[in-house]
Amino acid sequence: MKISREGNLMKFMIQNDLIAPNVKNMNKVLMEALDQTDGIEEVIVDLNKIENIDSVGVSFVVSLYKNISNEGLEFRIVNASNDIIQLFKLMRLDEFFIIEE
Amino acid sequence: MLIVDKKIKSTFEAVHDFVIEAADLIKKIDAPEVDSLLFKINIMLREVLNNAVEHGNNFDDTKFIYCKIFYEEEILVFEIEDEGEGFVANDFYMMDEGFTIKNRSRGLELIEKYGFEYRFKKNKVIVEYDLNKEMLS
Asked: From the candidates A19, A51, A97, which should be mutated to test the interface with B, based on the most B CB atoms within 10 A?
């Protein structure tokens, strides 16, 4: 997972599929990044590279959203495939955060 | 027609490898509507198999998961069997949380939402998808 900052924006570029064998390592990186949100107003999660996802991966996104929103920050998903967008909508995650189409 | 007959180890990594391999074999079925189904099949298999790894076989690397996929009369049939005590005791059954922002047990409801039909026989789950649904949708 690549994390970059630009002004008051923090961007998470997810590099590996959001599936059970990968999520444990992602959680570690995530926890470190969430300690460095001073001055950040919005977090963008870029799913451009994600082809495969499972419910563990969905839970990772939900957990990320919860952590971000608890800090009072905006949260947005960008560049997800149409299949993943439809999946998130099916799970009604679009009621909680913005999923850009 | 038997498409896949394989046993896999009780690890999430083995599940991932199997799903990729199975998807490649399913693509070869002579039914154009399969392409639009592959994402759903991918997720369904991961949910059922991850459940077998975690709750069926308890990550026990001496236990295996037995996977068969058939295609008969435009119906795809997936038979997944673990070496656990049976699905009744599994978290997979925890349907009460539903599609909320809560973090666990989305798998089974997701499978239902995607239009798969399933039934359980002790430690085996049988999932079916009628491809006629895709042709009609």
From this structure: A19
Task: Tell me the β-bridge partners of B76.
Answer: B71, B129
Q: Give A92 to chain B, closest Cα distance, Å.
A: 7
- Distance of alpha carbon A80 from its chain centroid, rounded? 10
Residue A26, SS3 per DSSP? helix
Nearest to B105 by CA among A29, A9, A58, A15: A58
Which value does ipTM take for this structure? 0.88
Q: What is the pLDDT of residues A60-98, one digit of tens each?
A: 999 899 989 998 999 999 999 999 999 999 989 999 999
How far B81 CA sits from the closest chain A CA (Å)? 20
Check: pTM over 0.90? Answer yes or no.
no
Mutate which of A52, A54, A87 to disrupt the B interface (most B C-beta within 10 Å)? Answer: A54
Structure tokens at B22: 């199975």
Superfamily holding A2-99? STAS domain (3.30.750.24)
Tell me the C-alpha to C-alpha distance, in Å, between residue B37 and each of A17, A65, A82, B4: 19, 28, 13, 17
- Give me the residue spans of the domains in chain A: 2-99
